[in-house]
Design brief:
By secondary structure, the protein is an alpha+beta fold. The protein is built from ten helices and eight strands. Strands 1, 2, 3, 4, 5, 6, 7 and 8 form an eight-stranded mixed β-sheet that branches. A hairpin with a 5-residue loop joins strand 3 and strand 4.
Length: about 230
């Protein structure tokens, strides 16, 4: 069984490979990206002898950082050259670890820099929308759409905001209420509440700024979106 010390050395290799991220927990490396916390988390598989790297995103616009960090906007698994999920043994040699890091960089490297193009983030979201689990879950889709709208609100470009609103209307009209309302209430009410938040952008920005300056979030490197 891999010791805690050996795992720590593996995590260190991952952390050093992404200089724009910093250690949030032993196996998680994050930064803030204006309205969200994003980065890489190494999640052990059942049994604990191998792990999978995930690209993580947490919101910063909710009531407090405990709420923000308790539920991710999305978590995207990384894939190898054969387009299979990466299961990396803790006993893997250095070459294998470096290859896994390289594959991860190819997939999300542009999104963990000091400046991140909105189009690169949205390209990630587009890919996540294609996942079978996401396709069948209005709840998971609503998290992604909320992030898109909050991004558009932050950028504050009217045509961009309108484009995202149209996407929300288009996608949400096909949701089955029974798979949505148990958590978020009626679809039309959720949609209205989401759009109403555009009218109180100052409160949204104030909440984000408050969360950016508290606890462990305040110690993370800050990166910015470019539209």
């Amino acid at each position: 069984m891999t010791s805690a010390k050996e795992k720590k050395e593996i995590y260190k290799l991952w952390g050093e490979a992404f200089p724009h991220l910093s250690t949030f927990s032993p196996s998680a490396f994050y930064m803030t990206l204006d309205i969200a916390v994003i980065g890489i988390k190494l999640i052990p598989n059942v049994g604990g002898e191998d792990y999978r790297p995930h690209f993580m995103c947490y919101p910063l616009w909710r009531e407090n950082n405990k709420a923000n960090m308790s539920e991710s906007v999305f978590m995207q698994q990384m894939y190898n050259a054969k387009n299979l999920q990466m299961d990396i043994p803790y006993t893997a040699n250095l070459e294998t670890i470096k290859k896994s890091i390289d594959y991860t960089k190819k997939q999300i490297g542009e999104c963990v820099q000091e400046y991140v193009a909105v189009k690169d983030i949205f390209e990630i979201l587009k890919g996540i929308f294609s996942y079978i689990l996401v396709k069948s879950s209005p709840i998971l889709q609503s998290n992604l759409l909320e992030y898109e709208l909050m991004t558009a609100s932050y950028i504050n470009n009217p045509s961009f905001i309108n484009e995202v609103k149209q996407e929300i209307n288009r996608i949400s009209k096909d949701w089955d209420p029974k798979f949505f309302e148990w958590k978020n209430g009626k679809i039309e009410d959720w949609r209205k509440q989401l759009f109403d938040r555009l009218d109180d952008r100052d409160a949204f920005l104030e909440q984000v700024q408050k969360n950016l300056c508290e606890g462990k979030i305040a110690k993370l490197p800050r990166s910015h979106m470019v539209y």
